[in-house]
Amino acid sequence: MPFPTPTEAFATAISQWEGLWQADPNDAGNYARCADGTRKLIGTMRGVTPDIYAAFQGVDPCSVTATEMQSNVTLELAAQIGVQNFFNGPKFNQLTWSPLVAIAVDIGWGSGPGLAVKMIQQLIGAVPDGAIGPQTAALLDQYLAANNIATACDQLTEARINFYLSISQPGSSNAGFRAGWLNRANWYLSTNPSPCWWDSWRGWAPTAPAVTSRPDA
Fold first, then answer.
1. Which residues in the chain come in under a pLDDT of 70?
2. Region 92-202: CATH code
3. What is the location of CATH 1.20.141.10 in the chain?
4. 43-75 burial string, b = 16+ CB within 10 Å, else e?
5. Which of 6, 27, 28, 62 is most buried (most C-beta within 10 Å)?
């Protein structure tokens, strides 16, 4: 069975962890940043914020409506936006596609690609500057060749969990999101009993064909 492509990885994570429509006023992502500097509460569909949706469509975020997003942001479109903004945009497509990179792009979906890049750079011993270039790509390949991939994925997940814990202390504005964030992070652990996310990556090795050469990457 082939390993998931980037598009498939986004679609699976979005389907598993993102609800349909939500417009919680306490969630900063639900607000559109208007051209005049004001913010407008619109909402989020399948994890796609109004700003991200507007940028993908090339329109002013404040021209977007809740009805439009609920109608247009299908699972397929959400995954397409994920690949464009959180895989190709930050240059994760320059790295060997692997379960480790799949976890990193999911971190970027929720917390920003810059943080996701820094986390994987810290893991592999690259300069954590948040930008992917030849050094990061080369060090990742060396790291994948020298380390057990399941252990590597669990270590990146542990770093993700620690980050979530640090920004969601009881009483903080993010405290209400802590449980959901931790559940999503723990979903990627290789130690979860089957059936689990890891099942789709069993048998992966650095010599496996890079998915980045496939059309949807």
1. 1, 208-217
2. 1.20.141.10
3. 92-202
4. bbbbbbbbbbbbebeeeebbebebebbeeebee
5. 6
